[in-house]
Amino acid sequence: MTDNSNPNAIRSRIWREEPEPDNAFSPRAAYCRGYDVYGEMLGHARWVDMLYLLFRNVAPTNAQADLLEALSLALANPGPRDASVHAAMCGGVCGSTAAASLMAALAVGAGQLSGGHEVFLAMEGWEKCGTDLNAWRQHFAQPAGIPGSIWPKPEHTPGFDPHGVSTTTPVKQTLACLASYSKGDYLSWLQQNLVTMEAAAGCPLALSGVAAAAFADLGFSPEQGEMLHLLLRLPGAAAHALEQRPLGYKKFPFGSIELESEPIGESA
Fold first, then answer.
1. Strand runs (DSSP E) across the chain, as ranges?
2. Going by C-beta distance under 8 Å and a sequence separation of 6 or more, which residues neighbour residue 268?
3. What is the pLDDT of residues 230-258, one digit of tens each?
4. DSSP string, 210-238
């Protein structure tokens, strides 16, 4: 959107700029949701304050900022076992550009197994079921597909670990920490009803499920939660890609592949 009085000015519901007197294409001041970013926020607000403000139309409360900051730390580095980080590491070890490594992480981390779309689906569950256990049981028993969607029907309950044996310690620690910060309904309820929810889902809670409840408590929509989940996991992918770049494939920290049959052309 442009300002009729100044066709070179750019503004949206999120962002508004005031031009420099000598250069209509450079901002003298920039406002995010009405807050002066460089004149007032810089040096006083935290990064998570800006992040929340960009996605929502109000500034976060102290409790909301603390919750988002704790969630950001929990998601920052999924670790080399995570498929998105592994993809970025593959980019790094073969000398791909920084952007290529991050795009690999985003592409692999966008799906329905610990990825962004799994968070989206789990958040839809919170929108639909809230804190109604019977509604959750029905939701788990009859997962609904989306007609015309590019996404396949989920192969497991979103937000839960289909390969898990029991709830992992980091998941329990993250849930306890975030529930202590949250003023919303979902994290504390999930903590209190964890055993029942896991029994209904048929598998243990995953970190993506904790993240979905946290995003819902913060008031984000499923679309916003999906985008934030993708964004907040990139630091670990970037760091691991950079670590692998000078090492070479011979020092790649994964075991060798064991073939079940001899490669074609190498049999006796």
1. 2-3, 6-10, 15-20, 23-32, 35-36
2. none
3. 999 999 999 999 999 988 877 888 766 66
4. HHHHHHHHTT--HHHHHHHHHHHTHHHHH
